[in-house]
Design the sequence.
């Protein structure tokens, strides 16, 4: 009987381990990849954020944890029909990054709603001083983006 229980426990453990998907990475949609590329083009050329000139800064690299946090927030906003950095359950952008496994410093989150094209999102963010500065922040080294329906999210971070 003891051998049977040990064998059953071993089989159960194998099944559970096979079901576990560690750090599942969601593939970005083409619009999402284009969004990060457009932000990097802006960072390469520099721009005015309001009346302040922001000099060129290095490109952002794609971070899978930030990507997953951004996608999850875009999906949550679409499903629950809200538009805010603070989720209805009180979750903050920094908490979402942490919950997605991000080990670096959360820097900022940009949101947009109602745009069908990447260029329109970038233009809207460029025309908002705070969003523009978030895109041009030299302390941000990596980012992740998500787009679900017409909800757009970019999460910026800096590795430790």
Sequence:
């Amino acid at each position: 009987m003891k051998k049977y229980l040990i064998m059953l426990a071993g089989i159960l453990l194998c099944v559970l381990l096979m079901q576990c998907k560690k750090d599942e990475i969601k593939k970005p949609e083409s619009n999402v990849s284009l969004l990060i590329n457009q932000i990097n083009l802006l960072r390469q050329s520099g721009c005015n954020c309001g009346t302040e000139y922001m000099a060129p800064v290095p490109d952002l690299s794609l971070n899978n944890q930030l990507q997953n946090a951004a996608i999850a927030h875009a999906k949550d906003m679409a499903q629950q029909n809200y538009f805010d950095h603070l989720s209805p359950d009180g979750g903050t952008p920094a908490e979402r990054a942490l919950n997605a496994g991000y080990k670096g410093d959360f820097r900022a989150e940009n949101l947009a709603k109602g745009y069908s094209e990447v260029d329109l999102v970038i233009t809207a963010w460029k025309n908002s001083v705070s969003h523009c500065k978030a895109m041009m922040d030299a302390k941000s080294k990596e980012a992740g983006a998500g787009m679900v329906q017409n909800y757009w999210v970019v999460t910026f971070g800096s590795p430790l």
About this structure: Confidence is low (pLDDT under 50) at residues 4-29.
